[in-house]
Amino acid sequence: MMKLNRHYWRVAGWSLVLGLMLLPLIAMQFSDGVDWTPSDFIVAGVLLGGTGLMIELGVRLSASLSYRLGIIMATLTSLLLLWINLAVGVIGPEDNPINGLYSLLVAMVLIAALLLRGRANGLRNLFIATAIAQMTVVLTALLLSAVPLLLPVVVLNIAFALLWLIAAGLFHHACGAHN
Hints:
Blueprint: H1 2-30, H2 38-58, H3 65-87, H4 100-115, H5 120-143, H6 150-174
Transmembrane segments: 41-59, 71-92, 98-116, 123-143, 149-171
Keywords: Membrane, Transmembrane, Transmembrane helix
């Protein structure tokens, strides 16, 4: 029964990835407002496929529900941050050089998570530090006067910091079950 349940979630997850990839293709048939290039599909495929792969591998590291939810939360937060940043930019337009710090942040999270070998206590600390780093990026932009529309940018960064902290909280809860 457990194996069947796991199979169901895998099929559902990869079907979601496929469905998300097909949405712009279908929308392009009905709207001139959606105009994806082959490179857009490649980037989306890498992001969505990489997200699916990270979740699939990450949930195998522990049977703890909190740990698995922490992996899912951190991975989806990374995807959302990268997607927004690539699509429209977090700090002003996507070509603002400060936006590169968000991509660097996600890359550093991935490298650190691999170096931590999935240990719940290390991941908890990593995502607390990531929340702080998220706010440091926006503070840097503020100090450099590179932030248009100040309130929305700050609110968006606070929201991402909270998502990182939720992931940290899930790993904190998992520390008892997975060290």
